[in-house]
Amino acid sequence: MDNDSEKGACAIDQVEKAQLSSSDDVDEYTEREAKKIIHRIDRRLLVTIGFMYCVSLIDRTNISLAAIAGLAEDLLLTGNRYSIVTLAFFPAYIVFQPSSTVLVRKLGPRIHISFITTAWGAVMLGMGFVKTYGQVTALRVIIGVFEAGFFPSAVYLLSTWYTRYELGRRYGLFYVIGSVTSAFSGILAFGIIHLEGAGGLRGWRWIFVIEGIVTILLGIAGYWLLVDFPDSNRKTWKFLSAKERAWVVNRVNADRGDAETPKFRLSKFLSAGLDWRVWAYGLIAFGSTTITYALAFFLPIILNENLGYDVGTSQALVAPPYAFAGIFMYAMGWLGDKYRMRGLIIVINMVVCLIGLPILGWHPDPKVRYFGAFLLVAGANSNVPSSLAYQATNIRGQWKRAFASATWVGFGGIGGIAGSLVFRTQDKPEYRPGLWACIAVALLNIVIVGVCTISYYIDNKKADRGEKELEAEDEGFQPGFRYTY
Question: Which Pfam family is one of this chain's hits (predicted)?
Answer without folding.
Answer: MFS_1
